Amino acid sequence: RQMGIRDRGEPVHVIGDGDRLRQMLANLLANVRAHTPPGTPATISARRTADSVVIEAADAGPGLTADQQEMVFERFYRGDVARGRGRENGTGTSEGGGSTGGSGLGLSIVASVAEAHGGRARVAAAPGAGCVFTVTLPVPGPLPRARDGDFTNAQAPGGAEATNAQTRVND
Predict the structure, then answer these.
(1) CATH topology of domain 15-141
(2) What distance in Å separates the CA atoms of residue 34 and residue 8, rounded to the nearest whole number?
(3) Which has the closest alpha carbon to 100: 115, 116, 118, 81?
(4) Please, is 170 exposed, middle or buried when counting C-beta atoms within 10 Å of its C-beta (0-12, 13-18, 19+)?
(5) In what order do the strands lie in the sheet with 2-6?
(6) Which residue in 64, 74, 4 sits closest to 35, CA to CA?
(7) Under a CB-based contact definition with an 8 Å cutoff, are residues 58 and 28 in contact?
(8) What pLDDT digit, counting tens, does each position of 93-148 carry?
(9) Res 5: pLDDT
(10) How far is Cα 168 from Cα 105, in angstroms, rounded to an integer?
(11) CA 136, CA 114: separation in Å to the nearest integer?
(12) Three-class SS of residue 42?
C-alpha cells in the first residue's frame, strides 16, 4: 500500500501530551492503512489555521454509510465488519473478506485524545467513496521561540509540554 504524506513545508506544533498525541496519530494511520486497498494510495496531511492544527487522513476504501459514521468513534465498533469486509464469525476474524484484526478501539482512542486536548475528530464519507478523517486540535497562540529560531519547551496550562511529534510511515 502506498501512503502519501503531503508536506506543506511548515512544521506544525501542538501543545499537549506527546505520548497520547503519538498514540492518536498511530491509530489514525493504522485505520487508514487497514482500509486502503493494495495499490491504492492513502494521504495524510497536517496544516495550521489561525487557531488550530487540522490533521486529515484519507483512504480509498469502501466508505461508510451515515449510520456507520455516527458509530465509527464508539468503543469496540468494528469498521472492517461494518465496511463490508465480511461477517464476524465469533473468532475475532471475519468470513468472506478478511479482517483488519483490530479491537474496535483505534478510532475511539483518536476521538478521546483529540477531546482531551480540547479538539475533536470527525469523518466525512460515502459508500464506495472512501473516508476522510479529520482531527482538529486547538493551538492557544504562537509558541515562544529560542534565539536560534527553534521552539522552546513552553508550558501550556495544566503543565502540558509543547511537543513536535514526528511520525514516520513505513509499509
Answers:
(1) Heat Shock Protein 90 (3.30.565)
(2) 25
(3) 81
(4) exposed
(5) 2-6, 41-48, 52-59, 131-138, 120-125
(6) 64
(7) no
(8) 333 334 556 788 999 999 999 999 999 999 999 998 999 999 999 987 655 554 55
(9) 57
(10) 22
(11) 7
(12) strand
